Amino acid sequence: MLPAVLTGLVASREGQAQGEVRTEALGLMREKLELVRAERNANWANLINGTVIETVRDFSRRTVISDVIKNGETDPSTKQVEVSVSWNTPLPNQVQAVMYLTRYLDNLNYVQTTEAEFNTGTKTGTVVTNTAGGEVTLAGGGSGNWCEPDLSISALDLPKSGVANALTAIEGKAFAGTGDNASGVSFANIAISNATPPVASVVGTFDGFKTNGVFGEAGYAYLATDSNFKEVEIIDLTTNPYSEAGYFNAPGNGAGNSVWVNGNVGYMTDGAKLYTFDLSSKSGSRNQLGSVNLAGEGQRVVVVGTYAYVVTENTANQLQIVDVSNPASMSVVGQTALSAGEGKDVYVNSTGTRAYVATAKSDTQKELFVVDTSSKTGSRPTLGSYEANGMNPKGVAAVSGNKIILVGSGGEEYQVIDATAESTPSRCGGLQVDTGINGVAAVSEADGDAYAYIITGDAGSEFKIIAGGPGGQYSVSGTFESATFDAGYTSAFNRLTFAGSKPANTNLTAQIAVSADCNGFVFVGPDGTSGTFFDGLGQAVDATLSSGRCMRYKAFLESTDPGAAPSLNDITINYSP
């Protein structure tokens, strides 16, 4: 019996010792959990994924911090913390615990749902209504009819005798320039009243250049000029008279053909190159950011999201798509080879899924093409084409009701094409303007009115306004951009959820933009790129782009049925300090 008693005494002592060691290990484990919690409270950035192993007296303490996956996506505001403490004597063993930490104990929500809340945003082709407490929907496409155009609205004589050749417009304003000769002013700022019918008037001019392209925004205008030293001229519209704010001088002795501005970046085509330049400031000589070679001379550039769409004179690649996500390192990623003449103009819809390309007159080939740009890479397919019947196109614009306006010289100079059936676009109306039309821009106003502006060769009435719309039905597309939400401190914007209605043949999506300094908002989808969109089901924001102080969201509303429209009823963005 003596060996049995001795064995029992040893086991009892070892069990007591093991219990004491376990108690000490539990204390070390709890201590580490509280230390990690304190790190979270001090600064969420302190929680860095990885494994840390420490030796504490006779114990090994292991801490693992890792991401948490929810619904197949990384949750940017939750971390898993696993702490284990192991020992070897008197018997090898370990204790462990798992803790989940959120960025903050109570995540917050930014919500917009009322008429007053939505009215703080910017509406393009959309309106805020109060049918069910407040919602955003597509605006009416205008009280006129695109397919029955007329010139009953009074025209405007632009200063001097130059031939207007460049045109762009925003609601309430149009920006025109000369390019066919130097007899006119370089730039005319045209105010357009919201009366019915609207009244146009010249509110300011700027001279000194031959203008080939123009882009306008609140406070500034940008001219693509024939100057070897100032291919882009930046005009300050807040001074009286207008004055030069700055300029961009591209390398070499070329001339600016077209210009576009997106945020703090300017884009210009000069010969067979696309240049980008810095617009974080508008004053003085602006620095070049990058350049990329094109297939031919770039006639027109349009930027949507992180892609530039350029039409060129190359008859083998009339449309090229350029990835400009890094303006300093651009690359051509897609193209379209049309059975047509050289490219003349392009219009791209607000979501970047369609490009409407106008090409030079051909006796054997067509002049208008609908290109599928829903994917940006590789050879992009042509969905449909249209014969202009003797017109030599110079400009194109897409408007509400699935209509396209094509303008130029010769034949019927103003043609309206119904593209409801994209594979077979067909003429639904037009006008004879025998002096020729050199450019077109279309605007859908917040109150539902829709107009096309054209610049013609008429010496005493170059600028003309044409009322449009699909007979009081809805616009084909529109956007709603929220006002800036300032969280007051750096926060993580975690998830975007929205509710609304999507009748048949309509669509409703959204994107988000987060900024560290409340400037330079770039809208992206759930994967952090401009080519994807939130569907409203509570998708997570890409973790690499979710942190910042300020946020905006942008809703995209589309309809292929003029009698139906989607609506955004409420939107919630979950965020954490």
Topology:
Blueprint lengths: L1 H41 L7 E7 L2 E12 L2 E15 L5 E10 L5 E5 L2 H4 L3 E3 L1 E4 L5 E4 L25 E7 L2 E6 L8 E6 L7 E7 L4 E7 L2 E6 L6 E5 L6 E6 L9 E5 L2 E6 L2 E6 L5 E2 L2 E6 L4 E7 L2 E6 L6 E5 L7 E6 L6 E6 L5 E6 L8 E5 L5 E2 L2 E5 L5 E8 L3 E7 L4 E5 L7 E6 L5 E8 L5 E7 L6 E5 L9 E5 L3 E17 L4 E10 L21 E4 L6 E13 L7 E10 L1
Parallel strand pairs: 16-20, 25-29
Antiparallel strand pairs: 1-2, 2-3, 3-4, 5-43, 6-38, 7-8, 8-43, 9-10, 10-11, 11-12, 13-14, 14-15, 15-16, 17-18, 18-19, 19-21, 22-23, 23-24, 24-25, 26-27, 27-28, 28-30, 31-32, 32-33, 33-34, 35-36, 36-37, 38-42, 39-41, 39-42, 39-43, 40-42
Helical amount among residues, as a percent range? under 10%
Look at the structure and give the CATH class of the domain at 108-138 and 477-576: Mainly Beta
Output the number of helix runs: 2
Strand content: over 45%
CATH topology call of the domain at 108-138 and 477-576: Jelly Rolls
The CATH H-level superfamily of the domain at 108-138 and 477-576 is Galactose-binding domain-like
Distance between the termini: 69 Å
CA-based shape: elongated
Q: Report the mean per-residue pLDDT as an integer.
A: 90
Radius of gyration: 31 Å
The major β-sheet equals: 10 strands, antiparallel
At CATH's second level, what is the architecture of the domain at 108-138 and 477-576? Answer: Sandwich
- Going by helix content, strand content and strand pairing, the class is mainly beta
- Number of strand segments: 43
Low-confidence stretches: 1-11
